[in-house]
Predict the 3D structure of the following.
Amino acid sequence: MGAKETAKALEVIGFDEIYLTKRLTDGNKRIPGDRTIQDKRGLLLEHFNSFKDCTKCELHKSRTQVVFGDGNPYSPVVFVGEAPGEDEDRQGRPFVGRAGKYLNTKIEEVLGLRREEVYITNVCKCRPPGNRKPTPLEISACFPYLKKELDIIEPKVICCLGATAGEGILGKKLSITKLRGQTMPYPYNTKVLVFLTYHPAYILRNPRADGEFTEDMRKLKELIGL
Ligand code: URA
């Protein structure tokens, strides 16, 4: 990749600045054999560049652009949503609409972190028309991209936002109302835990669930050791 292309990719995925607080990097830096920050950024860039023109499913026909994950590749938690909406499709970044604003507030108020200090992505990288749910076929076409992204970051916890994200990651049907607030093993890496909670858009439609979401974020905070 040339310097110009790298700069463009950095801009697209929001890595123009690395936001790392000491407490988030110290632990990571001490892991023997762990990759350097530059390595993780480089690996993600390379990965994103490899599928920016993906045509594996129908969604490529209506998308404006592929929406990659963004944030801190050394975050102990990766938030995984469903798929980009209209705002995300236009801006090329995940969770920049109303649901994203709600999520940012909780990350700040409950986890005590800035959005840029965590990593946020989606199971499906392209916007489904009319914001419909992505189909199982679309999710499975996109899964290798998500899996590789998670392999590179290897967070302590993958926080699935809503049933679609949970089903995409775990590969099975689940009820989020029954399983929210709970952890499960991540099928591809025993060092990583999967944590389930509501999708922020659900809370916007059902404000009474805000307390439960907050409670889940407190549990998440404990799980990631903050
Ligand atoms: N924005 C995203 O990026 N993902 C969602 O699941 C919802 C809104």
User: Anything to note?
Assistant: The pocket of uracil is lined by residues 81-85, 88, 94-95, 97, 99-100, 122, 201 (CB under 6 Å). The chain has a mean pLDDT of 89. The chain is about 45% helix and 10% strand.
